[in-house]
Amino acid sequence: MSTNHTPQNCGMDMEKEPEAGICKVCGCIDDHACYDPDYGPCWWTDETYTLCSHCAGPEDPDSLAALRLIEKEEDVW
Fold first, then answer.
1. Cβ atoms 26, 53 nearer than 8 A
2. pLDDT at 74 (0 to 100)
3. 10 Å Cβ neighbour count for 37?
4. Which pairs count as long-range contacts for 10-13, CB under 8 Å and 24+ apart, including other chains?
5. pLDDT single digits (tens) 59-69
6. What's the rounded Cα separation, in Å, for the pair 62 and 77?
7. Are the beta carbons of 56 and 24 closer than 8 angstroms?
């Protein structure tokens, strides 16, 4: 089971400008990263370190969602 942090449960101020090292969607940080049992902790997908791999959508090639889609396609072949 993955740990998903949300703005509602982490106390994020959604009006505040995104800060480097804090995911702008879920509020995770390096020392308290989102975790997926199959893929491990999240990683940054943008150069500003404001979007983690577990929150980024499948259109982002560095996201967990994109990785899962690629692996799913490989399983079909």
1. no
2. 81
3. 8
4. none
5. 999 999 999 99
6. 22
7. no
* Cβ pair 21, 42 in contact under 8 A: no
Dist. CA 24–CA 6, nearest whole Å: 10
- DSSP H or E stretch at residue 73: helix 64-76
For residue 74, give both structure tokens: 């490989």
The span from the CA of 8 to the CA of 66, in Å, is 25
Q: What are phi and psi of 40, to 5 degrees?
A: 85, -155
Q: What is the pLDDT of residues 30-39, one digit of tens each?
A: 999 999 999 9
pTM of the model: 0.74
Query: How many residues belong to the chain?
Result: 77
